[in-house]
């Protein structure tokens, strides 16, 4: 199942026969989508910051300080 936040569209794929994720099965199997969403929600609740409302700014362990952000080469 592909779906990151509540309210986003969901993708459900059979990776055993569709590795390219070309056929979204979510509409044809809504019960499985509900089951997987419940499992994902329960899993997310075990991690810090997962109880934040949708759209909330993420809390990070090491916030970036200062006006610049640089990437490593």
Secondary structure topology:
Layout: H1 30-44
Return residue spans where pLDDT drops below 50 for at least 5 consecutive residues: none
Instruction: Please give the number of β-strands.
Output: 0
Q: What do the pLDDT scores average to?
A: 77
Order of helices and strands: H
Structure, described:
- The protein is mainly α.
- The protein has a domain at 1-47.
- The protein is 21% helix and 0% strand.
- It has 1 helix and no strands.
- It has one helix at 30-44.
- The longest helix is centred in the middle third of the chain and has 15 residues, at 30-44.
- It is elongated and about 45 Å long.
- 0% of the residues are buried.
- The mean pLDDT is 77.
What would the keywords be for this entry?
single chain; 73 residues
Brief overview, please?
The protein has 73 residues and is mainly alpha-helical. It has a domain at 1-47.
């Amino acid at each position: 199942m592909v779906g990151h936040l509540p309210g986003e569209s969901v993708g459900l794929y059979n990776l055993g026969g569709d590795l390219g994720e070309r056929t979204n099965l979510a509409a044809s199997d809504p019960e499985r989508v509900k089951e997987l969403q419940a499992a994902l929600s329960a899993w997310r609740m075990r991690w810090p910051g997962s109880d934040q409302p949708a759209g909330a700014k993420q809390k990070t362990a090491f916030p970036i300080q200062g006006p610049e952000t640089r990437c490593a080469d």
